[in-house]
Design a protein that fits this description.
The chain is α/β, with parallel strands linked by helices. The longest helix is centred in the middle third of the chain and has 29 residues. The chain is globular and about 50 Å long.
C-alpha cells in the first residue's frame, strides 16, 4: 500500500513541488490550500494518487471540519508536511503593519501548530509517522526589516525541536527544513503583488528552486528508519545566511 503524505500550502511553490516529487516517488498525497481552482487542476493531473482539500490553516474549526471529510482509505497519514506560510511586508519593526503581523503569526505559527495537534495523535496511535516542518534561514537570525517573519520562523524551529523531544520515545521522526532564497510566489505575496520588487529579490544570484527543497524533503522521509534528519539548512551557493547574499 502506498504511504500517505499530507501537505499544506500545496497550491504553489515548495508545497506543490513536494506533492509532485512525493507522487513521482510512489506516495499518495493529500494536497491542501485555499485555492480551489488550483487544487482541482492538481486533482485532474494526479487522479487517484491525490486527495485535495480546500481550507485555511488559520481557522481551527475549518481545519477540523476539513480533516473530518477525509475518506477512510486516506486517514492513515504517514507524513505531515507543514509548509503553508508567508511573509508580508519588509519594513522596520517600528513601522510594520498590524494585519501583516497577525496573518504571518496566525499562518506560520498557529496554523502549523493546529495541523500538528490534529494529525500527530493518529501517528502516535499507529506508532509510525514523520513530520516535516518548513522553517527558514530567516529563523536562524533576524535580518533587516524582516523581524516578524524571522520571529515566526524562529518559532517554527522551537516548535519542531519541542515536538522532536516529545515524540522521542516513539518511532516518529521530526525534520526541520530551512531554505534560503527560493524563487516561488513568496516575494510576490510579501510585496503585495509588486512583481518588479519581487523579481529584484532574485536578481544577480541563482536562487534555489522549489524542486531543490522537495528533493531535500524526499531525502529526509526516505532515510532509513533509524536515521532522523533533524535539520537541514539549504542555501543558494552565493547566499551565506539570511543577510549575506553576494550578487553579480
Ligand atoms: P508560495 O507563496 O509559492 O506558497 C505558499 C503556499 O502557502 C501556497 O500554497 C498558499 O496556498 C499557502 N498558504 C498561505 N497561507 C495559507 C493559509 N492561511 N491557509 C492555507 N494555505 C496557505 O511560497 P513558498 O512555496 O516559497 O512558501 C512555502 C513555505 O516555504 C512557507 O512556509 C515559506 O515561509 C517557506 N520558505 C520560503 C522560502 C522562499 O524563499 N520562497 C525560503 C524559506 C522558507 P493558498 O494561497 O492556496 O492558500
Ligand atoms: C524565506 C527566505 O531570506 O526571504 O524564508 O526570508 S528569506
Amino acid at each position: 500500500m502506498k504511504r500517505i503524505a499530507f501537505v499544506t500550502g500545496a497550491t504553489s511553490g515548495i508545497g506543490e513541488a513536494i506533492c509532485r516529487k512525493f507522487i513521482e516517488a510512489g506516495f499518495r498525497v493529500i494536497a491542501t490550500g485555499r485555492k480551489q481552482e488550483r487544487l482541482d487542476q492538481m486533482a485532474m493531473e494526479f487522479k487517484t494518487d491525490i486527495l485535495t482539500i480546500c481550507y485555511d490553516v488559520r481557522d481551527i474549526a475549518a481545519t477540523e471540519q476539513a480533516l473530518s471529510t477525509i475518506p477512510e482509505e486516506w486517514q492513515e497519514i504517514d507524513i505531515l508536511v507543514n509548509n503553508a506560510g508567508l511573509a508580508l511586508g519588509l519594513e522596520p519593526e517600528y513601522e510594520g503593519d498590524f494585519n501583516d503581523w497577525s496573518t504571518m503569526i496566525d499562518t506560520n505559527i498557529k496554523g502549523l501548530l493546529t495541523m500538528t495537534r490534529l494529525i500527530v495523535p493518529g501517528m502516535i496511535r499507529r506508532n509510525r509517522g514523520h513530520i516535516v516542518n518548513i522553517g527558514s534561514v530567516a529563523g536562524d537570525a533576524a535580518y533587516a526589516n524582516g523581524s516578524v517573519y524571522c520571529a515566526t520562523k524562529a518559532a517554527v524551529k522551537a516548535l519542531t525541536d519541542g515536538l522532536r523531544i516529545d515524540v522521542a520515545h516513539t518511532p516518529l521522526r521530526v525534520t526541520l527544513l530551512k531554505p534560503g532564497l527560493v524563487e516561488t510566489n513568496f516575494s510576490n505575496i510579501r510585496f503585495h503583488g509588486d512583481t518588479e520588487r519581487a523579481s529584484n529579490v532574485y536578481k544577480g544570484i541563482t536562487p534555489l528552486t522549489a524542486d531543490d527543497i522537495a528533493s531535500a524533503a524526499l531525502y529526509a522521509i526516505q532515510a532509513p528508519e533509524h536515521v532522523q534528519i533533524a535539520e537541514m539548512l539549504i542555501l543558494a551557493t552565493h547566499q551565506a545566511n539570511g543577510s549575506t547574499i553576494v550578487r553579480n
